[in-house]
Amino acid sequence: HGQCGIFIKEVLRVKPSLPFVFRKVDKEVTIDGVTLPKGSPVFVSIIDRHSHLSEQFGRAISLDNDPDSYGSDYMPWGVGNRVCPGQKYAEMAAMVWLMHLSRYEIKVHERIETVFPWNAWLPQRLTVSPRV
After folding, report:
1. pLDDT higher than 70, residue 62
2. What 3-state DSSP class applies to 78?
3. Crossing angle of helices 2-14 and 87-101, rounded to 10°
């Protein structure tokens, strides 16, 4: 994966492109004493599952801690037969973008707080200049 790939995977763990999914149960299942009949709608919070990864493994994704070993706990693109078909392309495009971006120095002069998405901040004024 390399450092760029690991950085992208960690960003996707913290801020997944797909924060939640809706599915239907394909067979009757019991979870924590609650029985869900076949066809029941289910809401899966990917953000919540990813937050448990850091609790479970005690650290962020790094070169020593590959998310491929997490199984279905790491799923920023969904999981199973409904996984995003553009996953590999998006990860490669992000990696190319990140490598090109690393050629520049970016300074944030002002920023504004926002509630959406996920209490992020937006740059109000940036200076972008080539690294020398």
Report:
1. no
2. strand
3. 110
